[in-house]
Amino acid sequence: MRLSQLFTKTRKEVPGDEESVNAQLLIRAGFVHKELAGAYSFLPLGLRVLNNIIGIIREEMNAIGGQEVFLSSLQNPELWKKSKRWDDKVVDIWFKTTLKSGGEVGLANTHEEPLTELMKNHVSSYKDLPVFPYQFQTKFRNELRAKGGLLRTREFVMKDLYSFSRSQEEHNEFYEKAKQAYFNVFERVGLKKHTVLTFASGGSFSKYSHEFQTLCSAGEDIIFLCKKCNVAVNREIVKEVNACPECKNTELQEEKAIEVGNIFSLGTRFSEALKLEFTDEKGAKQPVIMGSYGIGPARVMGTIIEVFHDEKGVVWPETISPFALHMVSLEGGEKDAEKLYEEFSKKNVEVLYDDRKEASPGEKLADADLMGIPLRVVASKKTTEQKKVELKKRSEETATLISFGELEKTLGV
Amino acid sequence: MRLSQLFTKTRKEVPGDEESVNAQLLIRAGFVHKELAGAYSFLPLGLRVLNNIIGIIREEMNAIGGQEVFLSSLQNPELWKKSKRWDDKVVDIWFKTTLKSGGEVGLANTHEEPLTELMKNHVSSYKDLPVFPYQFQTKFRNELRAKGGLLRTREFVMKDLYSFSRSQEEHNEFYEKAKQAYFNVFERVGLKKHTVLTFASGGSFSKYSHEFQTLCSAGEDIIFLCKKCNVAVNREIVKEVNACPECKNTELQEEKAIEVGNIFSLGTRFSEALKLEFTDEKGAKQPVIMGSYGIGPARVMGTIIEVFHDEKGVVWPETISPFALHMVSLEGGEKDAEKLYEEFSKKNVEVLYDDRKEASPGEKLADADLMGIPLRVVASKKTTEQKKVELKKRSEETATLISFGELEKTLGV
């Protein structure tokens, strides 16, 4: 894409109403816009990053048998009364509103109830199980305080997968698969090294649930890390068991972290409340065993920025970068830049091409740093004279002069 | 995909609370689930159709210079007060709710106000225009009566594009491009033949706006069609000008139709209210000229069913069908079916493979008709003995025996 055509503009000033690094950089780079506290709009470059993250999660969910659905946001109170989660005293983050035709409706903050209810049309026998529907759908949460930019918002797209199994063993087997799929996601988006499996409270149906916590000074969670096992326990658990659940090590290190995902055994909590049953091989009715598995792609995006940035801007991991290459055309390099852009476009290399005539070299290079695409190529009078271009990784300080052929090789085309 | 793995089930019974053909068939085929009146959830096959429609619209919007964004649903009342559209007496379909931290917010029923406001960060000079952001984003509309299944709902994904131009001429030029892009969309989803450009009221800034109306007995709109020009006028316009706006023909035929899209010249209605200005070539401040362009992909989906169905089920156009091929394995044909499924999967042909062991031949064929995939292949003992398979188009009555090679040719692999 030609930067001269992109409608968004960068800005130098840090927005006064944003304390978090992720929101400051995203707004300055023109990736997102703040609508109100806790609600952000995604502009073209930001949406590309979000969709790259969503694409990775989708692949990993499909790989473990996930089937994608898209449930409504508007919620029928009757279902939530059955599970006793309609009352604001029980769930304190509801947004509720009123139908013009009469009656209250809610905006979904999670989707256990409607999904459990709809599965009653599709599950009756043990032959119909196990199944793993998931979606990318907006959740609305009436947080008292939105904070941390994309880290805690009132409206966000969430990937939520729900497992429906016949037995605890079948559930456990999928739970482990989902855990691995989550690690795959965090590996692919670049966060694996910083992310630890964290034991959290399990509710009535299992000892533990698990959070995926990314170590980061901007995190609002506190976890207690066992450096031997690279697992952690959260605040709640550490009060009960002040030791690593795996090696019993009691020397746990307190760390700030961001919760980037969680997986939860729900047992029969919702299937009993909403009467989702199946007939087993002996003809007896059994409640379905459920689990839920969440990742917020925008929170992952915010976390990646918190972990990967410097004073100049974002440093996107390759896999989720809005473009593979940021190509800057400076005076005298226009012809080479144009030629390379045409060639790469034909070969489906995603290039953000800074072809702006009026921006100064300094502005162009500062924008490239701010936007954070992992590879930058500059074509100028100097490089043209040598029949080369200048290549620089966003994560490194030094640029190197390379031939067109070497550039093609770097990009694998 | 193997039908034995798909979690949804079909049903024979027509749902008692649905009068419209589209909702009845979609629910029976397991494509959607009704959450409440006017809110539907999309199940795997339904989501595939919706995404195919969205994919076509996205390509056509990108082709005319659209840049995709994704705005928030939660709305800041202040912006809508400036354009005088916050008051329920003016806009009577608002869903409003309250922030826990205090203050009202709305759920977006359209996005002119927030987009105009955010463009102020990106547009200042004539050099920044024209630009055409668009999105696929949920709209919430508090309709007194939801009706017609997917045709009029309280919550639906909408493609809304907005144009920001420097002059009326520049606006008009884009408006014509958008009109053509809309015809391309309706051509590609199979509705072009049934869809007519319909002149509608233009508001204060232009004589007309335009609706795209699909002729259909299930439609709730009445239009007045000029058979010579294949254009129409809507109810409002016919009262003022009882003649074809193109040939002045006064013999207009009354028809029922479904509005599948609309395009609208907004002039400076929103740019003046929200102060979106640019500096022109002479250094003078000018308000931006705007337009809006909407299509509801789910309404298009519902309309397609209303137009293309028979007593057995849906008849999807190829371009939006959830799969390219519905392959049915009957007794004795399992080996051939399995072999073809493996081969086609490798070649990226999208096959819904009915490998169910317990469904009867009658059930399998009835499900194929209900689900409506345009091509059906049956492998049975009879076809295997002849080293052939049976091919039938969903839109035709007769099946033909063809060789594997001929099938590959039909599928273009």
TrEMBL record, chains A, B:
Its GO biological process annotations read: prolyl-tRNA aminoacylation
Source organism superkingdom: Bacteria
* PROSITE patterns the UniProt entry points to: AA_TRNA_LIGASE_II
Indicate the enzyme's highest-level EC class: ligase
Q: Which chain positions lie within coiled-coil regions?
A: none
Instruction: One Pfam family, please name it.
Output: tRNA-synt_2b
Annotated EC: 6.1.1.15
User: By its UniProt entry, which SUPFAM superfamilies does this protein fall under?
Assistant: Class II aaRS ABD-related, Class II aaRS and biotin synthetases
- Recorded GO MF terms: ATP binding; proline-tRNA ligase activity
Per the record's keyword annotation, is tRNA-binding included, yes or no?
no
Listed A to Z, the keywords are: Aminoacyl-tRNA synthetase, ATP-binding, Ligase, Nucleotide-binding, Protein biosynthesis
Q: Any one cellular component term from GO for this entry?
A: cytosol
Asked if the keyword Protein biosynthesis belongs to this entry, the reply reads: yes
Entries under InterPro entries matching the protein: aa-tRNA-synt_IIb, aa-tRNA-synth_II, aa-tRNA-synth_II/BPL/LPL, Anticodon-bd, Anticodon-bd_dom_sf, Pro-tRNA-ligase_IIa, Pro-tRNA_synthetase, ProRS_anticodon_short
* Leader sequence segment: none
**Reaction(s) catalysed (UniProt annotation):** tRNA(Pro) + L-proline + ATP = L-prolyl-tRNA(Pro) + AMP + diphosphate
Q: Which residues form the Aminoacyl-transfer RNA synthetases class-II family profile domain?
A: 38-317
Q: Extract the PANTHER family matched here.
A: MITOCHONDRIAL RIBOSOME PROTEIN L39/PROLYL-TRNA LIGASE FAMILY MEMBER (PTHR42753), PROLINE--TRNA LIGASE (PTHR42753:SF2)
Q: What is this protein called?
A: Proline--tRNA ligase
